[in-house]
Amino acid sequence: MRWLRAGVQIVCFGLFVYLALAARFKWKSPLPYDLFLRFDPVVWLMVSAAGREAAIYGSFALILVVATALFGRVFCGWVCPLGTAIDAAQFVRGRRPSGSLVERLSSVRFWVLILLIGAAVAGVNFVGWLDPLVMSSRALHLGSRARLDWPAAVVGWTVVGAVIGLVFFAPRFWCRTLCPLGAALSLIARLAPYRRRVGESCTECGACSAACPMGQSRIKNSPTECIGCRRCEAACPEQAIAFTLDISSIRGNHRSERGQPINPWRRRFVLGLGSLAVGGVTRFIVRARSSRTLLRPPGALSEQRFVARCVGCGTCLAICPTGGLLPLFSANRLDAVFTPRLVPRVGPCLPDCTACGEACPTGAIQRVPVKRKKTIQIGLAVIDRARCIPWAGGERCVICLDACPADYDAIELRRTGTGEFRPYVKERLCTGCGICEYKCPVEGESAIRVVAVKEMIAAK
To answer: pTM of the entire structure?
Structure first.
């Protein structure tokens, strides 16, 4: 079983990396690029709470919930790509017993989960900062255009590197103390009938405790902590440990083999309420406010709903064929860090492309047909006459006119009072695709720039 688990871990990790690379390099894949994120119940819960409506892929998240309710935290021990990376780092570091620090901090992950729930209920979604699948996905997606998104990429890589590096303090430190997904699955795992059993032949030699990355032993034998790695079973010299199915184990008051209550939840009730309140207060500290200067992809929800739903996984950034979607990274928009914004000077939004909406795992960017997408106005092209070659220098230039797609025909030449022709933007036809800004030959900042529609309204 240990070798089988290692094989499953390698396959799942390889699949996770493959899907990320397939999105970046536009490989055709029979599986969706966001496959792993679809199964994340914490992402689904936070997105639904913050967005005030049920997020998509709830049935996928339910599959993981049911599997955990039957077999415990097998996802953490067998499937999670970040957990596999942590195990690999632990293998390099070598096995050492857990310290007392991780034992004292073992309940922090539940407070983190409650805090995230409180913030989500208040309308602020911070799950993208701490969810292991989102963090791992972002780290793989960011950095493909390092010159442009390097601040966000560095932060994303640093967070994942720090999580993996915590194994130098104790095995699976992150999983045992901070991971909100692990905390949620721990609560569900209390119901699991398939769990670890310690027989009477146990001599309490400590071999299982030394082998367990979660610090389990005969004395501490909690189904909420076990990730089903089977290392204890292989390490036991008396063969006193077995993983079996027993429905009777989920009845009663959930006691360990020594009769000690597992995890005194009532004592943490007050702390849990405190975390929930702190999460709720964040709504007044970090407001998901509308922005007048951000261009969002076509199909994106209104700014507040978009920020509530987007977790910043980076899938849309990687799959964008022009590279025009870049992560927002601003200290005064902590609620929207890592969310995508369109930068037309880097890459425009192609009229026939709907890749970002098809790849979004949370519905922050809606899936829209190509015909409808061509009618969505995300911005408006504005000509800077001080920089435009025909307007400023009187020279002939019709590149923006030629670049504007025939489906829009939003730029035209008009005769001015002096009898010369100059480019004008037809505001009612422009969708803000940014092709004109991308093609503009003026060095540096383009002479025709796409601005958000709200900014244009405010200017008027």
So the answer is: 0.88
Q: Quote the DSSP letter at residue 297.
A: P
Q: Identify whether 291 is part of a domain.
A: no
Whether residues 226 and 99 fall in one domain: yes
Q: Which residues contact 296 (CB under 8 A, 6 or more apart)?
A: 303, 306, 340, 341, 342, 365, 378
Amino acid at 417: G
Total residue length of the chain: 460
CA distance 64 to 70: 10
| Predicted confidence (pLDDT) per residue in 403-429, tens digit | 999 989 999 999 987 788 999 999 999
Kindly state the tokens that stand for 125: 């979604």
**Can you say how many angstroms the Cα of residue 418 is from the centroid of all Cα atoms in its chain?**
56
Q: Are residues 415 and 366 in the same domain?
A: no
What type of residue sits at position 428? R
Domain of 83, in residue numbers: 2-281
**Whole-angstrom Cα distance, residue 21 to residue 405?**
30
Q: What is the pLDDT of residues 335-353, one digit of tens each?
A: 889 999 999 999 999 999 9
What confidence tens digit (pLDDT) does each residue in 356-396 have? 999 999 999 999 999 999 999 999 999 999 999 999 988 99
